Amino acid sequence: MTLFNDQIFNPSWVVGFVDGEGCFSVGVFKNQTLRLGYQVQLEFSITQHRRDHELLLQFVEFFGCGYVAPDGPLKFKYLVRDLSDLNRVIIPFFQSYPLRTVKQLDFNSFASVATMMNRKEHLTEQGLLGIQGLYEPQQNI
């Protein structure tokens, strides 16, 4: 049974929902197959209880990218990790429709890291340190 109205998916509603439930994250993971030994991964996500699985599928339709995957036994997560989708859809959307909470600071750092990755700066030691410096301070907010 669907309890939400398809008409709610307008930019203002999406911004408000993401302000409360969304996450813009930058992961730096060890990967010995890479020259510097680290990999940078951007991820935009929204996690909900499994009862709201259909709602998350509407985000796939609204943005035209990403996917929904299980996140443990009781949750599902809408995920966008593909850098081209982030650059083409997610980042421009939130630049056009800014977040209204402190989460905007996370988005700003997220978008800056995407720009650095587009320039291949994440493949240099200086760029990798710059990415860590940009994003880690936001974790204390």
Write out key terms for the chains shown.
globular, alpha+beta, four-stranded antiparallel sheet, 141 residues, Endonuclease I-creI, 5 helices
Give a summary of the structure in a few sentences:
The chain is an alpha+beta fold and about 140 residues long. The protein has helices spanning about 10-20, 55-65, 85-95, 105-120, 125-135; strands at about 20-30, 40-50, 65-70, 75-80. It is built from 5 helices and 4 strands.
Overview of this protein structure:
- The chain has 141 residues and is α+β, with helices and mostly antiparallel strands.
- Helices cover 45% and strands 22% of the residues.
- It has five helices and four strands.
- Pfam families: LAGLIDADG_1.
- This is 17431_t:CDS:1.
- InterPro entries: Homing_endonucl (IPR027434), LAGLIDADG_dom (IPR004860), LAGLIDADG_Endonuclease (IPR051289).
